[in-house]
Every structure is written in C-alpha cells, then in structure tokens.
Amino acid sequence: MKNTNTLIKFFIALSVFFSSTLLFSCLSSSVEIPYESTDREIIQLAQTEYDAGHTERALYCYNTLLKRYGNDTAIYVEGRYEIGHLYLKEKNYSMAEEIFEEIISIYDGSAPGTLPGAFKKLTELDLEKIPESKRTTKVSTAEAIN
After folding, report:
1. pTM
2. How far, in Å, are 33, 37, 48, 112, 134 from residue 117 at the CA level?
C-alpha cells in the first residue's frame, strides 16, 4: 500500500511537471507586440525573432505588420517581401514563389516611382534563387534570353 501511494504521488508530480512545462513553452512561444509599435519596430522585432531561430514568431510579427499597416502599399510590399524571403531561407519554395509573384504583379500594376524600387529588385533576385525544379511558374526560353 505504501509503495502504491508513493507511485501515485510520483506520477502526479510528474504530470504536474510536464503540464507546467507544456504551459510555459506555449506561453513563451507567443510574441507580444504593443499596439503603439511602429512599422519599423515590428519589422525589427520580426528580424530579431528570426535571427533567434523563432521562425513562427517572426511570421507572426510580419503578419501583424500587414494587419496594422498593410493599407500602405509600400509597407505591404515590404512585409510580404520579408515573409517571402523568410520562406525562401526555410526552403519553402512554393510559398516564397507565390509571394514573389504577387509582389511583381503589384509593381507591374503601379505607377513608376510610387513604390520603393529596392523591393522589386530584391524580389526578382530571390525569385531567381528558387531552383527551376521547384518552380511552379516555368520561365520560357524567350524570357530567359531577355
């Protein structure tokens, strides 16, 4: 009987330990972004999270950026580029390509000089980094020559 009570106490303690560990890990996986954060602060936070190896937290930050400031097309393009670039680094080529194609179409549909030119060039360079075998949009021979 004494051994049974000790065993039960051990399993209860073990359950409490694992439950608290799971709860703590879930709580620590979220990022709190103050509402008054600027677009620059959110982008910096996202980059810090990614550099620390927290890809999901970085994505959360970039998506928060888009929710809060996405009505500004320049910020939207920058946020989408950063998400696409993150997917490229993670070798999630289909998601990266989809985002890069969207950005190119935004630039194609906008008046010259209304968006920062750097993100169009960065997008084109990152799009070229996607292995041809992983691309869903194939480049024709005529496009490759031009």
Report:
1. 0.74
2. 28, 25, 25, 9, 27
| DSSP-derived 3-state class of residue 144 | helix
Token pair for 44: 């910096």
On whether the CB atoms of residues 91 and 55 are closer than 8 A, the answer is no
Tokens 């992983």 found at: 134
Q: What is the pLDDT of residues 32-69, one digit of tens each?
A: 999 999 999 999 999 999 999 999 999 999 999 999 99
Cβ(88)–Cβ(129) below 8 Å: yes
Q: What residues contact 100, with CB distance under 8 A and at least 6 apart?
A: 81, 84, 123, 126, 127, 130
Distance CA(6)–CA(15), nearest Å, equals 14
Task: Give the whole-angstrom CA distance, residue 116 versus residue 110.
Answer: 11
Q: Which segments of 52-136 does DSSP mark as H helices, in order?
A: 55-69, 73-89, 93-108, 117-129
CB atoms within 10 A of CB 42: 23
Count CB-CB contacts under 10 A for residue 92: 15
Angle, in degrees to the nearest 10, between helices 73-89 and 93-108: 150
Radius of gyration of the chain (CA): 22
Cβ pair 81, 122 in contact under 8 A? yes
